[in-house]
Each structure stands twice: as C-alpha cells, then as structure tokens.
C-alpha cells in the first residue's frame, strides 16, 4: 500500500489580481477548481483495457471515493475524451485549445506562445491559482506570456513552497490543481515510490482525492475532476475515453451526461463560466462542458442595432435589456470586440470576418439575437495590380519572363505557370507554392525584395510552358496566402471551365487569382463573379488564362469562363490577404 505523506513540496503559483472583475458573475459565482489526474481509462470495456483493474476508474473497487462518493453526489460525463497522447498536449488543450506544435512531453519550459485561460483571466482582472506537486505538467510553466519576462502582475515565476495546509480563503474564482505522479495516478518506474499500473496506485490517488475535494467543497467550490489521457493504447478522438465529473453547489447529484465532450469543451465551459473571451483554439467549435453557477440571471434582449449596415471596423450600438454581464457579441457567428455601456447598451466593432446576418449577445442569462439583419458592406479595397507580364516557350528553355519595370520592395509577387511535361517546376528562391493541379499552378513571394529583369523557374521535363507574373501593392507582408481559401478543378471535356470554388476567405479584402489551362487552342470569354482577365497565353496546343479580383467581403471565390469549343481543362484558384 502506498503511503501519502503529510508534507509534500510543490510548485505553487498564485495570481492575485487587484483590479475589479469584469462582471458580477466573476465575483459572485462559486469558485471553480479543476483537478487533473493521469493515464487511466474510463471503464473496463474501453479500448485496450480488457477489464484490467490497474487501468480504469469507473466501477473499479480500488477507487471507492470516486465511485461511491463523487459520482453519486455529482454529475458524471460518460462520453468525455482526451485530445491527444502523451500528457502535456492535453494540458495545453485544457487551457489554450491548441498546442502550438508541442506534441510531446519533452517541450522546453517557456516555449509555447499561445493565448491561454490564465492570461485572459489576468487581463480581465480575475484572480486565479495554479497548484502542481511537480512542474512536469503544470501548463503555466510552458506558456510564454506568463513567465517573468512578460512582467505581468499575474505572471507566475516558478517558486518551490510547501503545499498549503489549507486552501486560500476565500478561494480565487479559478484554481488549477495537478497532483504529483503518486497522487495523480501516473506512477513511477518499478523502482520508484509508486510503480505505475498497480491497484495500489489507483487507491493512493483516490485517497488523495478524498482528502482534497472535501476541503474545496467546504469553501463553496465547484470541483471538476478529469483525467488527462486514457491508457491501453486508446486513441479514440485523439486521447481516448477518460473520466470527467463535477461536484459542488448547483451540480445535479447522481446525474449522467452522455454528450460528447473533450478537453477543448472543458476550456469552452470554463471560459463561459468565468466570462472571458475570445474562445481559444479548438474551444471555438467544441461543445462547452456545462458548469452551473447557480445565479438567477435575467435573459437578455436585443431591441435594435444602430446602424444596421457597415464595414469591418465600424462601431455598432446594440440596444436591449439585461446587457450588463455581456461576455460575447457575434456578427453572424463572428466574434466581435465590444464594451458594455450600461444595462441597455453595448458598443461593438464589426469584425473583419463578419458576414451579413444577425447579431447575437450572450450573457449568463442566455443569448439574444437581433431580429434585424446587419448588412456587412464591402470594405474600401487596398490592393492594386501594379504590373504584369507573360511569356511562353518550348521545353528547350526554362520558363522565364521579364518584368516590365523593377518591382517595389515589400510588394506581393504572384506567378501563374502552365507546363505540359511530367516534371515538377521549382520556383525562384524566396517564392512558395500556393496551389498546383496537373500542369498549372500558382506561386507567390510575400514582402518580396525588389526584382528587375528576368524571373525564371527551373525543373526537368517541364515541356512547353506559359508563365505570367504579377506585382500587387497592398498585399499582407506576412501570412499573405489564405490557406483556408484555395481550390482546384478539372474536366475531361466541356465548354465551361472553372477555377473551382474556395472556402470562405478569412477577411473581407483579399486578392483572388484564378488560372485555367485548356488542352487545346480554345479561346476563353466572359469571366464570372467579378473577375477580370489579366493575361492569356497560347503555347502550342495549350492555352493559359489568368484572372484576378480584389474581393470586398469575406466570401467563397471562383471564376468560370466560356470556351469556344468543348475541351479538356484544368483550373486552380488561390486567395491572398490584403493589408
């Protein structure tokens, strides 16, 4: 039997923020404490468990406090899944909804540049505490905006202190608690203090919970207990089926919730409960874990919008009732920044990703949607085609074209290349591929250095080619290629050729470039959807058409042209963000 020692040394981070909370909710709702345990699956029939009592929790007699006390007195989430393997990425999803590329337990401390729940709380003036009996999986120590260099009053430089004999009184609105390997059920190697994969390890963690949870409940907290990842090789939904439950004031006793939840849903639920925004990472699309606050809050209403139309960046006055505790405003689903003027007025800024539709305001009392549609008008366009040039040739020469004038430093350069051979074209240094399909592709160089004279592609077995280059002012200097909005298409024979249809662009003003290659001399006419022809080139029996449009609203883009005869064709389209 494992022995739980009376004195345990831990990493203890407490952020006490002296500014006022952003709403009455943060001051009057019960505090919430999340306890994270490790590396055990939900039940005996989960993937890879086969009834092994060292590997699961629900129904396991080695965990009597969980099964005989916590589950009967609280709500059990029977369909809750971890997001990944191994442990650390799961912790990051709980507090940030993403990993920023940290996919192992070996990520260095202070290396994850993600917006996170701790930082949002600190910026909102809401106190929080983080307790970890070892720093291995304390997510705060990995987040770059919480280290000493960030110099925030709520930051958490690592300090070693005895675990408190009693919790802060009163508890802060949010506490994040991570036991050590022995009490969190992760275990140690066989020669360590608490070998993993034993019945005794589960009992030790269960006993620790029986000593910890009652003290939190006694101070009025809602306590959420969750495991970071499953065991037995269970990768279902990323990290496998795990136990999650909650208990405390206003939590239904003996309830079982079969809704699908995940660590991202836990984050969404915590953000809702603590009233901080924006929703982070994958929490934006996850089903929020319900954490009842017990506060009877009147439902909001939205009675009017002034004005009822505008462009991204415009300010809109939202009139209604019971708006004091507003924690979210969306324009047709797009999150907006806002400020609460009083109980009947909220001022919101139209977000760049907004589309025409209703405006929704969310408070602890519910959500209210405007009966009036807000129309998103085209923004003033900022991107301009400065110059373009086109050339074509046989396979004996590499694809080359000459700029008509030296380009301007910092502009966006775009090239469209058609080739008839089996090879793969290599763009010039500093250029990248946006999209390719069977002999036609779009390439780009963002924030480019000044270029003059000839520009060329290399590659073997390219065959005959046609190359068009464009210089655009007003393109974004970084992240210019909108990876959410590009497409390809093709047909064996048709008199209508299309670039394909992209997903919705990520912002209102974007440069859309469509290219269509025909496998004949067919001419192209009547480009659709506001596109104009930039250039056309005939190389042997292949024709290349290049089309452009500066989009004024966030929308899917595509261009079709009418061919003079029915022929085989290929199409591509890419969109680039304007500044």
In short:
The protein is mainly beta and 579 residues long. The chain has helices at 24-28, 64-73, 87-96, 117-124, 199-218, 263-274; strands spanning 9-15, 32-37, 75-77, 80-81, 128-132, 160-162, 174-178, 222-227, 244-247, 255-257, 261-262, 301-306, 309-310, 315-321, 328-331, 334-335, 338-342, 345-349, 359-363, 366-369, 375-376, 384-393, 400-402, 412-419, 432-437, 440-445, 454-456, 465-473, 481-498, 510-518, 524-525, 532-539, 542-551, 560-577. It folds into 3 domains: 22-284, Alkaline Phosphatase, subunit A (3-Layer(aba) Sandwich), CATH 3.40.720.10; 301-376, Sandwich (Immunoglobulin-like); 384-577, no CATH class.
Structure write-up:
- With 579 residues, the chain is mainly β.
- It has helices at 24-28, 64-73, 87-96, 117-124, 199-218, 263-274, and strands at residues 9-15, 32-37, 75-77, 80-81, 128-132, 160-162, 174-178, 222-227, 244-247, 255-257, 261-262, 301-306, 309-310, 315-321, 328-331, 334-335, 338-342, 345-349, 359-363, 366-369, 375-376, 384-393, 400-402, 412-419, 432-437, 440-445, 454-456, 465-473, 481-498, 510-518, 524-525, 532-539, 542-551, 560-577.
- It has 3 domains: 22-284, Alkaline Phosphatase, subunit A, CATH 3.40.720.10; 301-376, Sandwich (Immunoglobulin-like); 384-577, no CATH class.
- It is built from 6 helices and 34 strands.
- Strand 19 (359-363) and strand 20 form a beta hairpin.
- The chain is globular, with a radius of gyration of 29 Å.
